[in-house]
Structures are given as structure tokens and as C-alpha cells.
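Hey, can you fold this one?
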Amino acid sequence: MGHIYIKDIQFASESKIEDGILYVSEEAVKAVALEDEKIKSVSFDIAKPGESVRITPVKDVIEPRVKVEGRGGIFPGVISKVDTVGEGKTYALKGMAVVTAGKIVGFQEGIIDMTGPGADYTPFSKTLNLVMVCEPIDNIKQHEYEKAVRFAGFRVATYIGELARDLTPDETKVYETCTIKEGMEKYPDLPRVAYVQMLQSQGLLHDTYVYGVDAKKIVPTILSPTEIMDGAIVSGNCVSACDKNPTYVHLNNPVVHDLFEQHGKTLNFVCQIITNENVYLADKQRSSDWTAKLCKMLDLDGVIVSQEGFGNPDTDLIMNCKKIEAEGVKTVIITDEYAGRDGKSQSLADADQAADAVVTGGNANQVVILPKLDKVIGTLDYVTKIAGASEETLREDGSLEVELQVLTGATNETGFNKLSAR
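Sure. Predicted structure:
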């Protein structure tokens, strides 16, 4: 991975990257976004850390990347042709993101505050954001609008990423991916650890895509963890803002990166196992059975299991934990919590004694006051309908009284890639 650090974003007549500054031609990116006839109009704006700016309603956040060596391209099966990725060399534009915005579902979009107390709860207050607000054609169905905005965001991020193809990275990181046999021979004395990632797949507008395939259509399988760095997993998700993994988070999955940091030192990072979160009990049983079977076949010593969403997926989380532990593989689960505004309610919808090692991302019901900011990119017309808000959210002074779940990518007060163990 080659990291190219972006220090500023400016609109210009020509799109290019010079001296760490991204210059963006509005005319060029509008043309890229409007390739889909379902998008009637699009506007672009720039939001920078510390500015008195609120972005809402947020759909997705994407980090621009370009694959310069190796098989395939960025976002395989979505933008690039289907090919197995995860090897070679990829450049990422660090410190910036493409943010897509627009009312799709209404109650399932989110907020990004670039300053104030809200900024402490979203990682995207720290990035330079190129924001695209998409308006659909009339009488379009919500799932068609979501798809149009999703693909427009990927096209624009790919366009921006291509600007870095011939640049020299500011920093390069190398990730080792051994075969099963190589890993056992090279690290015979280290515990064999994998990451079990549960992908949101509860139905229409609750979707995640793997090489372009809706995750509810897959059975659990194995990935090389570097595949996600080329965009093998992308978001098509409209669940609550703090509960969905935007594409940016899939590209920069902190569990994967933290395990790579320990690979060859304290553990042997064997692989990434992806599974889904379906609605019907038989599907939950099948996926959790297969996930536990893979853990046993790989002769793992331990796994980290993360979930996406809450409520119904809590059952998948506990089923995975219970069955993997029953195969003699130790588990640590990562979960969010909905413990009520007073923090006293049961935080998960399911539980089991096997879940005795838990990492929490914080209580999404915690109430915060977001002060009125000088500028809104998008619209506040739907802010009272976002999950975690209410009819009393918009106060007379322009401030917002909301639960943490309205903030895009919210984890806890320490932000992205920081989790509090209990």
C-alpha cells in the first residue's frame, strides 16, 4: 500500500494532485457522477476539519484508491471487472474522502459535523471531504436511487484515485499474506488467529457487496485480508448511521490492520472469514454452522468476530460466538450497544455464557447536543426523521438534540479504530 497524503482540496479548472493538494474540476466530476440517467442533478462542495459545517443526509464515505500493480482493479465486480485482488501495489489518498449525500430512506442516513462535540464522534470530521449531493429523477424507487448514488460515489472516487497513478507515495506499507501451509511453517509457535467479519445483509437497502455480489446471496467464505484494501467489500447500506460500515471503513478495516500489526509477532494472522446477517432462522443457522466449520477446518486458536447493525444481527453474533467456541476456538466479539439513554437497558438482544470476552464500541443511545453550525451541505429537512432523532430534535436555537447513532461512522468518544474493552 502506497499512502499519498492530501493536505488540501481545492476546486480548479483541471483535476490533478500537486504538492499534496488535490485540485478538482467540478465540470469533470459532475460529468462522472451524471453518467447514470437516474441522477437528475449533482452538486459538489468541500468540507474541511474545523470548519463550521454540517453534512447531512450522508449516504456513504469512500477513500479514493488506484491499483498500480497486480491483478484486477479497484472495486472489482462493481467498477473494475471481476478479478481476484489483494496482491501487487495499490495507492490510497489518505486524509481525504468522497462523501455521498441525499435523502434515500430518510430515517437511515447520517450526519457529519466538521467541528464541535459531534466531530468527536465521527472519524470523518478529521478528513478533507469532497461532498456530492445527488438529486434523483422524479418518481424513482428508493432502492434504485440508492444504487445510482452508490455507483456515482464509486465512479467519482475511482476518478480521483486515478490522479495518483503516476505519483510517488509519501509512505509505503507492506502486508504479508502467507498460504495456510507457509504460515504454519513460518510461525509454528504463534497462535493461529482469524477475523470473522459479519456483513450486513438483512434485505433491501440493508446490503453489503462482495466482488459485486449481494452478501445475502453468499455462504461464509475465506478472503485474504488484503483483498478488502482493493475494495472487494463495499457498502450499499442504509442502516443507522453509527451501525453501518461505510466503504471507507471496509477499505481501512481497523481489525484487519491491527491484526497485521501483530502478525509474526504475537500471532499468525491466518485469514479473514466473511459471513452474513440474514433475517430467517434457517439462514442464520446455516451461516453460523459454516463459519464455525471453517474455523475448525483451519485449525484456528482464536478469532475476533465483529457485527454490523444491532437487534436482529445480535442473534447472528451470539450464534457465531457460541458455535465457534464449541469447536474449541476462543472468541472475542466486537459489538455496539443499545442500552437506553440511561445506559441501564440490556445492550444486546441476545446473550450466551460463551460470550465472555467482549469489546464494546459504546452506547449508541447516549444523548448529545449538536450546536447550530454556520453551513449545511445537503439539507436539514429530514434531520428529525434520522434514527436517533425525534420531532423535538431541531431546537429553537438551531441546535440538535440527538442520540449518538445519528453520527456517521460513530464509535465512541475516542473515534475510529479505538475500542474500549470491558
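The longest helix spans residues 142-162. Let me know if you want another pass with a different chain boundary.
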